[in-house]
Write a structure and sequence with these properties.
With 103 residues, the protein is an alpha+beta fold. The protein is built from 2 helices and 2 strands, in the order ααββ. The protein is elongated. GO terms for molecular function: copper ion binding.
């Protein structure tokens, strides 16, 4: 009777719920790749560099006297390259007195 029908309906609901979770998990996996790439491009995290686009603004920049700039070196390479090297220094503090721009 009615108990058997309720168990079948519960089983169907459970199956739909699990399948929905699997589909959402797969969708999140595919969405995470471009989201991470966008995050890295915006923050320079993960070794991605930013490219200057506003050349007029750069050309009209004021010279900063005695500004201390910290330059960090990394040795990130894809695992498929199988290169092993490390920078001699992890970071270097430098004072830049002049801006050189070549476009």
């Amino acid at each position: 009777g009615p108990n058997r029908f309720d168990k079948t309906a519960d089983t169907k609901n459970y199956t739909y719920y699990v399948m929905s979770l699997v589909i959402v998990a797969i969708g999140c996996t595919f969405a995470a790749i471009p989201a991470y790439r966008i995050f890295c491009e915006q923050t320079s995290f993960g070794g991605l560099t930013q490219v200057a686009k506003d050349f007029e603004k750069i050309a009209n920049m004021k010279k900063c006297e005695d500004r201390l700039i910290r330059v960090q070196f990394n040795s990130d390479v894809p695992s498929s390259m199988r290169w092993e090297f490390k920078p001699q220094q992890h970071e270097k503090n430098a004072v830049f007195l002049k801006i050189h721009i070549s476009v």
